[in-house]
Amino acid sequence: MRVSLIGAGNLATNLAHALLKANHNILAVYSRTMSSASLLANQIGATATDDIMLLHDDADVFIIAVKDDVIADVAAILRQRMPDALIAHTAGTVAMSAIPGSHRGVFYPMQTFSKQRIVDFRNIPLFVEAQEENDLKVLTSLAESLSDSVMHLDDERRKLLHLAAVFCCNFANHCSAIAEKILTDNGIPFDVMLPLINETNAKLNQCAPHDAQTGPAVREDHHVMDAHINLLNGLDMTQFAEIYKILSDSIINLKKNNNHELQDKE
């Protein structure tokens, strides 16, 4: 399939390599700066441009992989240039209607991406949507060539998916960043946490998150929790102490809610 990429950031870089691996023809890479466009285009044998109006209209699909708040503006310019082209964006929380015209869709890979680490798309869930049935077939075919997990998902459910992903990924990583600061500020290397993090994540392949929960909060060990909060306050990390309390209270409340739901089902 012939594809043109609008964007050259983390997601676009990983998507470009996945498309190349699946033997698709990447015609062009657009970025606001020629240096970014050229950097990615040279890796995959595509044409680089920093002028969206210079893109040719012979691609089967144009995939927009830019920041959420500029998708609508970029799509409007692209639609002006390509009135009949299939245009899809890659965002979790942006509606398909951000793209004007009838041939529009969504091509959302749910994963965290970095330019420095090229991931295997076969293991990444891909969620697609399109306004026209034929366009949905095109996006589905493209997705299935990259991933073993492809689903059709509408705007509202995709927003919920993205919300859940923020908790699983961004917030969880922020907690690791807090742990890193606590440790490195006191001369302890963060890598001692990696076996714990890896085992915590590995357990989720075998049991539900609420069943995998351990620690003082799920045990309602207030003595330990109070000691941790006092320790954080003593380290002049009161902001982290507040986060600790909020998360601990949430763990306790979620456990109680789950127990009540189980009792109601019995």
Share of helical residues: 40-55%
Oligomer: single chain
- Following the backbone from N to C, one meets helices and strands in this order, namely EHEHEEHEEEHEHHHHH
* Main beta sheet strand tally, sense and closure: 8 strands, mixed
What percent of residues are in strands?
5-15%
Which blocks of ≥5 consecutive residues have pLDDT under 50?
A: none
Strand order of the largest sheet: 3-2-1-4-5-6-7-8
What labels describe this entry?
single chain; 266 residues; alpha/beta; elongated
Structure write-up:
With 266 residues, this protein is α/β, with parallel strands linked by helices. The protein is built from 9 helices and 8 strands. Strands 3-2-1-4-5-6-7-8 form an 8-stranded mixed sheet, sandwiched between helices. Helix 8 (222-234) packs antiparallel against helix 9 (238-265). It is elongated and about 65 Å long. The termini are far apart.
